[in-house]
Amino acid sequence: MHLPPHAVRPDYAGGSILNLAATLGAHHGVPTHHAPYRHPLPLDGARHVVLIVVDALGAGQLRDAITRGDAPTLATLTPAPGPVTSVFPSTTMAALTTLHTARAPAEHGYLGLTVWLEEAQAVVNLIRLYDVYTHAPLADAGFLAAVPSLYRQLHDRGVAAHVVMPAAYQHSVLTRWACDGAEYHPYAQPEETPALTAATIQPGQPSYTLVYFPEYDLICHGSGPDSPEAHAELRRTDRIVADLLAALPRNGDTLVVLTADHGQSPQPPDGYVDAITKKVMKTALRGPVAGEERAAYLRPQTGHHADLEALLAPHATLLNADDAWTGGLFGPPAPADPRLRPRVGDLIAVPHPSHAIRRPTSPAPMLGLHGGWTAQEMLVPVLSARL
């Protein structure tokens, strides 16, 4: 599997958020077949682990924020001494689900915002659970729970598991599966998270708490990661993290780790490519394009593979999906679930930097995107503090 020079391959051998989640879970006794996280963490003797996830905070974005003076609290935490990657695709559905399950996308099956589901014979939006072409709801979503959540495994081992997340997400199908076993602490405003998080740490029982901030990602999409609005939101997040750290007990037995699911890259409006038109969908494809604007999954009609390659090659790197799957792009091949392989189609198109593949089912153009394999999208921070 040949990747272009600018591509950052997910480091599932020890330097990815998959390995981070697996190591944090293993500290509390959850078995894993994944490589341990490569970089040192002060885990010895820690009874409580708090994992803070700032959606879309790439390593480069954090570095720039610290230089601007926008992240004084985060600047005081200990950074990983080497690079850490997201998973592929570098998108919330794949990466956050990895943090919830300590499994690779090739194991948990949430391989993009939209995927082809053999079980439904449709391309389905995995958040809203409907056919993207007809908008018909997915009748039965139970099969999507392919692996147990990390929280369920922690709970079964006597570890108190908690998630501190927006109230709006509490009752979704994905949350009910991915957060199974955890006590859900909903918040209406992020400023509520310090008190909610502190309340999860009790002296009598070991605990694991995930705190999730999605707001920065939403603003980066709408205004761009380099915008004043994104900078302001990151300053707000930094202040909330400062309050959260101050609210936690300082008994020496709590480890706080902060990371992101992926980063964001600026998306110039003129970089959107309208190659997948309704006509192309009807003549060259066996259904709607799945995946992301920055990582598209296609199922060519017989005899149209070369046509699609010629159409997309000027704008994207094209991969045979079988090669990408067996080559470990979606996770180490050994634990990959072959039942999930059809979800990524037959041909994968990863747009060149600053490009994005639009199609008739795409949302309005956004000024920040992720899903691909540039350093902006793939490299994430891991910061830690022992309290």
TrEMBL record:
It comes from the Bacteria. GO terms for molecular function: hydrolase activity. InterPro entries: Alkaline_phosphatase_core_sf, Phosphodiest/P_Trfase. It holds the Pfam family Phosphodiest. PANTHER family: BIS(5'-ADENOSYL)-TRIPHOSPHATASE, ECTONUCLEOTIDE PYROPHOSPHATASE/PHOSPHODIESTERASE. This is Alkaline phosphatase family protein.
